[in-house]
Amino acid sequence: MTQGKKRFIADIAANETVADIFVLAEKNMARKRDGNPFLTLVLGDKSGRMRAVMWDDVQRAAAAAGEGDFVQVQGTAGEYRGSVQLVVQSLAAVPADAVNPADFLPTTRRDADQMLARLQAVTETLHNPHLKALLAAFWSDDTFVAQFKKAPAAKQMHHAYLGGLLEHTLSMVLLADKIAAHYGGVDRDLLLTGAVLHDVGKVRELAYAHFIDYTDEGRLLSHIVIGVQMVADKIRTIADFPDSLAAMVKHLIVSHHGVRDFGSPEPPKTIEAVLLHQVDEIDARINAIREFVATETAGATWTGYHRLMERHFYIPDAAGRETAAPEGDGGDGE
Amino acid sequence: MTQGKKRFIADIAANETVADIFVLAEKNMARKRDGNPFLTLVLGDKSGRMRAVMWDDVQRAAAAAGEGDFVQVQGTAGEYRGSVQLVVQSLAAVPADAVNPADFLPTTRRDADQMLARLQAVTETLHNPHLKALLAAFWSDDTFVAQFKKAPAAKQMHHAYLGGLLEHTLSMVLLADKIAAHYGGVDRDLLLTGAVLHDVGKVRELAYAHFIDYTDEGRLLSHIVIGVQMVADKIRTIADFPDSLAAMVKHLIVSHHGVRDFGSPEPPKTIEAVLLHQVDEIDARINAIREFVATETAGATWTGYHRLMERHFYIPDAAGRETAAPEGDGGDGE
Amino acid sequence: MTQGKKRFIADIAANETVADIFVLAEKNMARKRDGNPFLTLVLGDKSGRMRAVMWDDVQRAAAAAGEGDFVQVQGTAGEYRGSVQLVVQSLAAVPADAVNPADFLPTTRRDADQMLARLQAVTETLHNPHLKALLAAFWSDDTFVAQFKKAPAAKQMHHAYLGGLLEHTLSMVLLADKIAAHYGGVDRDLLLTGAVLHDVGKVRELAYAHFIDYTDEGRLLSHIVIGVQMVADKIRTIADFPDSLAAMVKHLIVSHHGVRDFGSPEPPKTIEAVLLHQVDEIDARINAIREFVATETAGATWTGYHRLMERHFYIPDAAGRETAAPEGDGGDGE
Amino acid sequence: MTQGKKRFIADIAANETVADIFVLAEKNMARKRDGNPFLTLVLGDKSGRMRAVMWDDVQRAAAAAGEGDFVQVQGTAGEYRGSVQLVVQSLAAVPADAVNPADFLPTTRRDADQMLARLQAVTETLHNPHLKALLAAFWSDDTFVAQFKKAPAAKQMHHAYLGGLLEHTLSMVLLADKIAAHYGGVDRDLLLTGAVLHDVGKVRELAYAHFIDYTDEGRLLSHIVIGVQMVADKIRTIADFPDSLAAMVKHLIVSHHGVRDFGSPEPPKTIEAVLLHQVDEIDARINAIREFVATETAGATWTGYHRLMERHFYIPDAAGRETAAPEGDGGDGE
Amino acid sequence: MTQGKKRFIADIAANETVADIFVLAEKNMARKRDGNPFLTLVLGDKSGRMRAVMWDDVQRAAAAAGEGDFVQVQGTAGEYRGSVQLVVQSLAAVPADAVNPADFLPTTRRDADQMLARLQAVTETLHNPHLKALLAAFWSDDTFVAQFKKAPAAKQMHHAYLGGLLEHTLSMVLLADKIAAHYGGVDRDLLLTGAVLHDVGKVRELAYAHFIDYTDEGRLLSHIVIGVQMVADKIRTIADFPDSLAAMVKHLIVSHHGVRDFGSPEPPKTIEAVLLHQVDEIDARINAIREFVATETAGATWTGYHRLMERHFYIPDAAGRETAAPEGDGGDGE
Amino acid sequence: MTQGKKRFIADIAANETVADIFVLAEKNMARKRDGNPFLTLVLGDKSGRMRAVMWDDVQRAAAAAGEGDFVQVQGTAGEYRGSVQLVVQSLAAVPADAVNPADFLPTTRRDADQMLARLQAVTETLHNPHLKALLAAFWSDDTFVAQFKKAPAAKQMHHAYLGGLLEHTLSMVLLADKIAAHYGGVDRDLLLTGAVLHDVGKVRELAYAHFIDYTDEGRLLSHIVIGVQMVADKIRTIADFPDSLAAMVKHLIVSHHGVRDFGSPEPPKTIEAVLLHQVDEIDARINAIREFVATETAGATWTGYHRLMERHFYIPDAAGRETAAPEGDGGDGE
């Protein structure tokens, strides 16, 4: 039987008594001036993170659980330097199967298997045998597929929830397909292959077991460089994959952030690469704005200030709008 | 009977004798150190512009034609400071109906009436009565419609030819319609209205009688500010147009360049404004790249350096590509 | 009889009991996990804003007052996430005429009628009949004049107080007049007209009934675009106003922020527009620095760090300086 | 008897025979592949510079004149890589007193002695004895005064002619005086001292004997750093000059470019420094625009594109304007 | 007998009772609404700064100590606007010789006399007599040497501790020496002279008696401008110092920040200046990263986010690394 | 017997008759308005490139040689749009072994085998067995070694000559070694491995058979992404290479341009990566400045304007300097 959370970090206020389950995101042993050890912790759940400190019984607590484990915590909320900080009285490990994962990581509201099936159905319609073989190599890699279905698309900003990578990829593929039909002279096979693969490096750039964060590899190499290597590894398994086509596919990954300043070593230099970047920007931005708007108090006509986009957004009729869009991104009647 | 051009400016080399028709783009009387007058001219045709100078018989020549007139010119091409410069022996005005306008201004390859009909058909499908009335006010304004069918979308860079504004607008409306269907929660009526109207200020920002240039009003106010005034003028003729809706429509025009740095006094603050900006960017960029690629020598796999986009573009198979896209922008089989 | 404020928001510290009048700047009904409603509020006075929350009796309190109303509040100050937050026990509406407006909005220390008279006296000295007619059209519009006398020049940074727009406008006109006399070849009539009208859009960009904030129209269109429309509306009422002069006047408004990055769709392209921008920058900056210096503790020789201007300012002799400038901006003995 | 120029560099076209006097701006001996020497030269006059090459009799020519000398040149104009290049047949030195200096360096149209007298008259009105002593130390330094009267204010862009530094300084002082009167609380003595001294480093940053160029010291240190040293040198000669006042004066020089990006190690941090920067910007910009407009063909309503300011300028009525401003900068009726 | 600190500011938490010695960094008298005075203070020690307020007995306390004095304080820690603030009950001056200076200002762990000796030994190896004389003039200036041994290299970021300037200078000189040997054609004497003198202005830019802050002169002029003046003052005492060499040395100081945006009025224009800038950047950056890493909790593999460098740093094996580098910067076995 | 060049492109002037060998860099067939074909060509040698056109006998000429071939050309130099253009009368292929390669591509003045031996000797001193195995895998790959010895380090700017990559790599490794010794706590093995491998991707990014240009792969992926793949390919051949160490090595390649804006998807996040970037910047910059200075006319004290570095460089004593640095980069006596 799984245990439900009673109280989420975002709701905890100073002076509150807390008895709940969290992810142990960080654990460090420090030493007071008198030489005695104490623990500084970071606890997490799907609503955010919170610093915590534990003064007593620390050796046993430290041994009880490691970073990434779930822990049952008793404590009292205080404030330290302007943030809530929990003073922990007791801490004990909780088995992963005893918790509801959805309490710790936000998850897409859409069905992952259906999204994957839809995505694979689109890739079935490609004509280029090399590109079909490349995508098939990914689809037949069970480890990859499992990661790809679960991974978020980002740590924050857009599609930052389990399944977000698949949701973002599917939405982009469907949108790219429409745009390829709108403009003549676009290599649809290439564009859709790029749309499927552009962010595959995120399955290794991000860790998302119990909370979303960057992996060491992700911080050192970026999902662009990881993705190119993953594609190169698959291409090596396919006979007679043309070198020039390989370079074109990798270029789509390399350039999909549009400009060097956002992490693309080269800017888009083909029509398909230009379109892929634009489609990525649209889909990421629309999702980001929606997620941001969703955090606003009902009834407000303007959101708070969005730091990265540097503006407030206008919500002319938030209630009516919500009913008008029941299917979410990419939900165009299918 | 109209007279055809024999030689275009882009092809004229030093030492060549020239006898042909040009637009008189600029005409200035200057004075030599000995006190005698001479004329400095700029001549144009659809392939570009060329400086010219006339030493003799200048009073009569100066009186014969004004800026914007067509002129029959006899002269010899020389070089001055690294550019071709024509030394003119004689110059005479030619009536506008005696020339082939297509020699002087590039024109869309698509049919303006068909494009307009297609555009109006789409706007017929809107549901919001105020927005329908607003678009109807534009469609029933014959002066505007005539300008809107003829205007280019830019002086250079993208859709810089007669009919380019209509072609760009239609392509955007069709693409915006697809994207509105892809994402739930988008106000299709508002987005399509913005797509139709976002660049209407260009009919006054640009002059395109015999060559494309900015008007004084265009340089002083920008098509964004002119467009807002044109929309305000039409809204004034419509009873009970809601103020808040008027602000929303104007916001689409105001923000469609996306960031202040590109001339939008405010960035997009609604979902529709964000999408409109993105669609504009896609359509302008795809057209710009195609126009740029089209100027390259057949067979090259890389274009020259594009100064504004700061890169070379890759043309994997130019010949094959051209056949693959017979319908042009927005030509998705309808 | 009006009620005076006893305690301003900027002075309220945690744990303090509060019983005072505030503007109800925001009011939102939310729901606790147990399904019961609670109110989240933002309260304001001239010293700033403060979040507040109300747990009991919320239905009656919510019905008692709307956003923008004055309210008598009983509560206790606490801290939440590093800021003071008031827990409200009771809340009741207070009629607007029972409060001292100066407690809620800072106001210019100068006399609005005198400033307006001075400004109109200067515009009387213009020679160009069209420009005189344009300014007269504004002066004879009572609604406009009432707004123009009351409006602030900004939400923050410079002249952010009632009457600030008029004070800033007058100071600029007087300074522009001196500069026009200094440089030959400047069209004084045009420059002064631009100085009077450059910020008129702010009467609609900003709301300043009980606190200063942006209006929806202001956020969507900017005071530059609003101002151009206001000028266009007045010009439409004047017979034979030359189109080219209208474009020149609008250009002054359009370009007065100097560069696109600060919201001007076009940069200044005439001598008058260049000067207007410079005069605006001087007057805004000097006022901003003075307001900033005025918030510093007496005796300090350096101000705190000014985030926007990215520096500390030096105050060599604050006391002596204050006596030296009793008349404020533009107070050059007249 | 001085010899007048017949032909200026800006007017020389390819294939023209030239026999005229120039400044020998650069002279380098190079060696052909066959081992024989040839000379590459740069010749100058007030209209610009021109490359030249000399194939024969080079040893004698090389010995005849050094860089900075005036030379009588016979040659033929050709083109090399898009620019005019003179092939020199003969070259002989001309004594400096045999030429008209005004042919080689543009000069202010105003009287230097009158400007200086006006400037000194203003500085006489200062009250602070230390600042008066500082300015007096400059005025009594005959070497400095001679340089200050002759120096240009820049190599190009604004006041780039002999006497330009004095003209620019006087205009700024007069304008600063007006602005100091407009705003209360400004230390007029300090501001005017800064206005007089802000660019004194230019007398050593620029060389302007026969053509305007940077000196080695100017390129290595900048006029800001040179100016601070010049002021420090004068202050050392004055008894009891307060250290804090010295820092304030130097700060005005250090910060007068407004931002680090334009060469000020520190931005303006006092009201006087902010004003000094603004006044400098106004005066430099107005002069730059006027000089730029003056190079345009009579009758044009728009200038060419100004690369540094990134725009075209509008000249509504160039002819009328010229008559309206006979006195030039700072010519406010005195 | 000196008194040791018991509690450092960085460790003080809300609600704690404090009785300890601090530096009185700022002291301002303010007035409550009831007219009674109170004191707002800033207290400091080597771990940071803290705001404090004193309500009672303020006149006596204010008279007891001035800014920069050491004070014995009794009080209680509270929170105000998210930061710890001390409510002071009593405050009394403590003589400077009664405290341990190291409690108030962090100090280099290396021996200043040894570092200076090492540095002077290197400068002994120069060959250019003028440069040797210049350095000797500094070394024989006892006041300078005392300051140079004590000054920090910055207020924060890198080498922000007593002796940091000397440590940074020595490390740069040793590193510059190696690089001069690596590349041929480098003027070693000039480069090393620049390395020794590049930051000498910091002895006057920074105040570091009881805490590190900028001096008025430092904020108004910057250490670059101050340093140039100090070098000029020394050069004036040396017979026959060549002007061109003086300009070269000053250029090294002027340009050592590399670009105008970081406060260099001119960028490096000689090989030596380019190298000096690079060596400065390496040494400052390596020290900054080390100092930053040193503040992290033991065991972490990633540091927190470094705001100025905009990244997290990776610490693959912090423990092992520490043992591997016992000698610190420049400790290459000598 | 190889044929020597008689005339280099940089020396060809208009109207000259040319009969010499060039590389055929580009060849395109175009069609005149009369339907007849003509050839547009680009010819190259080590001094630059030149456009050419051929009007007659084009079919045979086109068949005679392909892009990249050496060709014997007869023609006459003209000018077209400000550049020299050759009108070709005849064109015939020349076998590659009949030309002196040094006429067509500039080459390092140092001995490639000696440089390689020196480099391998340094890598022999590493201790980490995995990194030694990685470098050994490169050294034992004969194809790679051959390319690595021949490749330039860039198309232009620095080390843009055959052997330049090896010369740059060796110089960096030697310099990095010194810096690793200067600072404690640096992982020398890792830093030197990064120095050896940071630019290996350039052997595929650049084509340098007969002239230096980017390859398709280079333009699409960048040498950073190519280099990471090359390292990944070698690591795959080594047993038990730790994943974390692989990520560290790849990070050195990924981040060596220092900032995203210069093409690094991630900035340096380890001490070794920070140092590698700095060493690369020093070595590239010093070489670039020297190459730039070397193109200046002997005797000049200032170079022309360097567009990318945006400054002139000072050459105090060019002649003396040249003798002082006989060994070139990295030539520190070994």
Give structural notes.
- Chain A is an alpha+beta fold and 334 residues long.
- Chain A folds into two domains: 9-103, Beta Barrel (OB fold (Dihydrolipoamide Acetyltransferase, E2P)); 112-321, Hypothetical protein af1432 (Orthogonal Bundle).
- Chain A is 41% helix and 17% strand.
- Chain A contains eleven helices and seven strands.
- In chain A, the strands form two sheets. Chain A has a five-stranded mixed β-barrel with strand order 1-2-3-5-4. A two-stranded antiparallel sheet of chain A has the order 6-7.
- In chain A, helix 9 (243-255) packs parallel to helix 10.
- The radius of gyration of chain A is 23 Å and the shape is elongated.
- The two termini of chain A are 36 Å apart.
- The relative contact order of chain A is 0.09.
- Chain A binds chain B through residues 171, 174-175, 178-179, 181-186, 244, 248, 267, 269-271, 274-275, 278, 281-282, 285-286, 289-290, 309-314, 316, 321-322, 324-333, and chain B through 171, 174-175, 178-179, 181-186, 244, 248, 267, 269-271, 274-275, 278, 281-282, 285-286, 289-290, 309-314, 316, 321-322, 324-332.
